[in-house]
Amino acid sequence: MPILPSFIERTILITLNKGPGPMMDLVGGMAFKIVSVAIKLGVFEAIEKESLTSEEVAHRISSDVKATDLLLAVLEALGYVSKKQGCYTNTRMTTKWILESSPNSLAGMISGTEASLERWQYLPDTIRNGRPPMLAWEWLEQHPGGWKDYQAFMIGMAHACVEEITARVKLPPNVKRLIDLGGGHGLYSIAFCRKYPDLSATVFDWPQAKDVAVQTIHSEGMEKRVVFQEGDLWENDYGSGYDAALLFQVVHMYAPEKNIQLFSKVWNTLNPNGCVVINDQVAVEASSPLAKLLARIASLELLNSVNGQTYTPEEIEGWLLQAGFINPSSFLLRITPGFGIVIATKHA
Which CATH number does 161-345 carry? Predict the structure, then answer.
């Protein structure tokens, strides 16, 4: 739960600067870690179906009773659990956004963000040199479970925006085949296949994504319509005969000239009248203080993780035109501030 100071606290800490305002950031950092630990221990799942005392929760998650009681007390203060007559239960916020059983679960994003913050240990070097000492995938290879945490983060992101994307993106009429380039977990392909009954999809990504993708496809019961294909965006051929291509969270990793090359390769894989759908963080003026903060933190994370950067929708549209696409258009996502969709078509 966001830490919301009272009016008096805001006045003292922020408006009048009579108290240490940076304390809010310190408390926020500790609060994030506490929620992450609760997710790892399975606290929220333990009380998903019934209210329990702290002693009962400790028994469920095999933890110390006193320590569990202290943890639950903080989670109550943060708004993740509520306590009535000595028993704890999840709040509505936790039920919708944290429980793994929820289609809106962001639990994976929290776990994945904790892994990302480990890479921020070398952020000073990135700032000094203008580039990270290693790229994210190099770091992931050195850390057991790193790829799993990364995919958990990406799944959390997908849960946050997939419904809006599939509602607002219109694929070509009579679409039959889709390729999801760098598609990782496959949730976007699955969602589009559900929207278009005659559609089948190929998730194309590095072998490190295969286990999570196959598990996701199986858990969603989509084995007959969604398949995973190992490959590298630059080294391997994508095939041909596709009516649509997804390119999600990829553009930010490359310089403009590389993106034009990538778009040209996507163009070659599409049928006439086929379309490419790009989803990425974009460089646009933020509409609110929170959106501005999220966008700027994300930009710093892109630099520190993949030596990447954000681009404006207009820049991406221009590269698509240079690659041979026509009629580019774009819109911003409402649910995930700072992210946008760019769509273009291959001529008939």
Answer: 3.40.50.150
* Exposed / middle / buried, residue 347 (Cβ in 10 Å: 0-12, 13-18, 19+): exposed
3-state secondary structure of 26: helix
Q: In whole angstroms, what is the distance from residue 281 CA to residue 248 CA?
A: 10
As a CATH number, domain 7-102 is: 1.10.10.10
Which run of H or of E encompasses 247? Answer: strand 242-248
Per-residue pLDDT band for 2 (boundaries 50, 70, 90) equals low
Average pLDDT estimate for 296-301? 90
CA dist list (Å): 128 to 122, 135, 302, 306: 10, 16, 16, 16
**DSSP for residue 91:** -
Q: What is the DSSP letter of 15?
A: I
- Average pLDDT over every residue of 264-291: 92
Give me the helices (H) in the chain, please: 7-10, 23-41, 43-46, 54-61, 65-78, 92-97, 107-119, 123-129, 136-142, 146-168, 187-195, 210-219, 256-269, 289-306, 313-322
Predicted local distance difference test score (pLDDT) of residue 330:
97
CA distances from 201 to 43, 66, 125, 134 (A): 36, 50, 41, 33
Edge-to-edge order in the sheet of strand 242-248: 226-230, 200-205, 177-181, 242-248, 270-281, 339-345, 326-332
Task: For the chain, give every residue range classified as CATH 1.10.10.10.
Answer: 7-102
pTM over 0.90: no
